[in-house]
Give the backbone structure.
Amino acid sequence: MRLDCTFQKIFLLNLRRRPDRLEAAQAELSRVGVYAEVVHSIDAKEEPDTLPGLYNSPGSSALARTVLNLIERASAERIASFLLLEDDVVFHADFQAKLEALTLPADWEAFYLGCQHVEPPESVAPGIVRVMKGYDTHALGLSAQMYPAVVDVLNRKYHFGACESDVRISFLQPFRRMYAALPNLTWQRVATSDIRQRTYSNYDARGNQRWNRHNVKGFSENE
């Protein structure tokens, strides 16, 4: 598998007021030989929330609206697929070699280069699993078939109240062909989140998920 053969476009999200995160992300991309177009995210401190009540914070809403704008652009430009990277992304030290060893199923609709499995996934091929319930969108690829469904869940008002965009996207996983690399090929850098307003990562230094480790028991881990 190669990124440039799988995704027509690669986008890197970044807030204009966080050049430090952009610099770190671009250094990481350069290290693994990946080019991404920088897309400046909607800033909750500068623009009003147009999805009130749907998300847990203005920052979460701003991220969702940024993704919605990207899907709108991709649809208008007839972009068949794109990879969305967040600016706290970290790539495996041997990323390209491990990626090239993967064979993504031809029927894929979404692909996580890494995620946090909150329910056990299903193995489908060496290094590839079908996601049954997984969180985080630091490296999420979407095919055009998924655009309408993602737009729907990001705009939908649920009876149980507000929730994050990655949780909303997870509602689609049992019904759509959404796969992930496991072991993770990407994860989140320990950094201060503009959304959560705290310094954290859901992954350890090797890229293995910190929480719900029992859900990936029996699968290989990064060493």
About this structure: The chain has a mean pLDDT of 95. The chain has one domain: 3-216. The chain has six helices and 14 strands. The CA atoms of residues 153 and 168 lie 6 Å apart.
